[in-house]
Specification:
The strands form 5 sheets. A 5-stranded mixed sheet has the order 2-8-7-6-5, sandwiched between helices. A 3-stranded antiparallel sheet has the order 9-12-11. A two-stranded parallel sheet has the order 1-10. It folds into 2 domains: 175 residues, Aspartate Aminotransferase, domain 1 (Alpha-Beta Complex), CATH 3.90.1150; 257 residues, 3-Layer(aba) Sandwich (Aspartate Aminotransferase, domain 2). Helix content is 39%, strand content 12%. It is of the alpha/beta class. Bound molecules: ligand F0G. The site of ligand F0G has 15 residues, from helix 4 and helix 5.
């Protein structure tokens, strides 16, 4: 018999979590005004709100915390990280930032400009993450989504649903002057389309198209290691290559990258921008010094840079990724086997439950994915996050709701944090909700909302 995967680590430290009662949860979610972000973490048993900054560090990373050099300039921890970024990712220059969106702020200030400098400009890519899009639109530029059509069909079985539709990208390049396209952003894996990877073939094709039109290509690399794992698993010619070889090859095609280190860096906070071109690094460093900090710390403590340098090495180990992505697929198959519709193939960091199919008797005006999230919390103290109408915000011009094609409940799995028994528990809770799904006919209405990014702070009440 082939031996199954098992985590290539054992547990040295544990953190207690409280298993509450249903009556407590019903009270807490009401007090939280039916917004899962308003719950205190002690009120959550299994927290699948995000895989960002919620992973468990290794003993080698904790050792780096003690070794952290907190010098303002020239800290040894900075040089450790610089060497790792050069070794693993192949970039000679980098700027540390406090997290991924800070990296976007610095990069776009450099490439798009500040204030309204983006007016008339476009940044094409594959389903840009919200903060990426936010930073583009804040500068009055436009994010153009060139993802392949298969990405929007949750059940279409395509191995690389993060891929860019090359014809769409070329059309954007051809219909704008060169100066109107400051950069092309490729997100690996693509969070907004369900943690879906981009193939090496597509990376290469996007890169050569960018070269042809002289457009710089940057990767949003938050989950780059999971992307490399999928290439090894699914793409012809890569089965025998190591993850580190695949990672090197992926980044060879980019001019630079932004990173939220809270994902595949397996640290609790941090980010960076890496560059091939020294002159561009130099230009960006002025913004980094203004917004983040001096070039050798840029918003990160020395200890965190040390831990990140170890995290990047650990997350690009095959055995780790096999268990990591394997755990996500484990939860996915428990749900699929129970007849629950989830995004296929399973993503690298999360399972996305199709709330429209789950709650067929609930009108979309009453927030299907949010309602499902609340039901799952009440059932088992499991917290997911709505990727649906609340997240989509209203149309800024008409003030009307923008109903997205997909209403999803994302169950994001923190790295090295929960066991498969937790996954069994989550699946059982969702299956219980599914058994009474036909009778869930009442959702929620908005009592108060912010003008943008409302999902974080929205206050809700039962609809009727
Ligand atoms: N890019 C991607 C693909 C992301 O998923 C995120 C964050 C960011 C950039 C921004 O990074 O949070 O460090 O500022 N995603 C988190 C999530 C918040 O829950 O998916 P950040």
């Amino acid at each position: 018999m082939d031996l199954p995967y098992a985590e290539p680590f054992r547990i040295k430290t544990i953190e207690q979590i409280y298993r509450s009662t249903k009556a407590e949860r019903e009270r807490w979610i009401k007090e939280a005004q039916y917004n899962l972000f308003n719950l205190r973490s002690e009120q959550v048993f299994v927290d699948l709100l995000t895989d960002s900054g919620t992973g468990a560090m290794s003993s080698a990373q904790w050792a780096e915390i003690m070794l952290g050099d907190e010098s303002y300039a020239g800290a040894s921890s900075y040089y450790k990280l610089k060497d790792t970024i050069s070794d693993i990712l192949g970039f000679p220059h980098f700027l540390p930032c406090h997290q991924g969106r800070a990296a976007e702020n610095v990069l776009f200030s450099t490439l798009i400009g500040v204030g309204d400098a983006g007016a008339g400009k476009v940044v094409p890519g594959n389903s840009h993450f919200d903060t990426t899009k936010g930073h583009i639109e804040f500068r009055k530029a436009r994010a153009v989504d060139c993802t392949i059509a298969e990405a929007f069909d949750t059940e279409a079985d395509h191995p690389f649903k993060g891929n860019v539709d090359l014809a769409k990208l070329e059309a954007v390049f051809k219909s704008h002057p060169r100066e109107a396209i400051p950069v092309c952003m490729l997100t690996i894996t693509c969070n907004s389309s369900g943690g879906q990877p981009v193939s090496m073939e597509n990376i290469k094709a996007v890169s050569s198209l960018c070269r042809k039109f002289k457009i710089p290509l940057f990767f949003d690399s938050a989950r780059f290691a999971e992307n490399a794992y999928f290439i090894k698993q699914r793409e012809k010619g890569y089965a025998k290559k190591s993850i580190k070889e695949i990672v090197k090859e992926m980044f060879k095609h980019a001019d630079g990258m932004t990173m939220s280190s809270k994902k595949d860096g397996i640290v609790n906070i941090g980010g960076f921008i890496a560059f091939r071109d020294e002159a561009l690094w130099q230009r960006a460093s002025t913004f980094n010094i203004m917004f983040e900090g001096f070039n050798t710390y840029g918003g990160m403590a020395g200890r965190d840079m040390g831990a990140l340098s170890v995290g990047l090495r650990e997350s690009t180990e095959y055995d780790y990724l096999e268990a990591r992505v394997g755990q996500v697929a484990y939860l996915g198959s428990l749900l699929t086997n129970a007849g629950i519709s989830v995004q296929r193939p399973y993503g690298g960091h999360a399972i996305f439950v199709n709330a429209k199919k789950f709650l067929p008797n609930l009108p979309k005006e009453e927030f299907q994915a949010q309602t499902l999230g609340i039901e799952l919390y009440k059932e088992g103290g499991v917290r997911g996050v709505e990727i649906g109408t609340l997240l989509a915000d209203r149309d800024p011009e008409t003030g009307k709701e923008r109903y997205p094609a997909l209403e999803l409940l994302r169950l994001a799995i923190p790295r090295r944090t929960y066991t498969n028994a937790h996954m069994d528990y989550v699946a059982a809770a969702l299956i219980n909700v599914n058994e009474r799904a036909q009778s869930i006919r009442k959702g929620y209405r908005i009592v108060w909302e912010a003008p943008i990014m409302r999902h974080f702070t929205v206050r809700l009440a039962p609809a009727r």
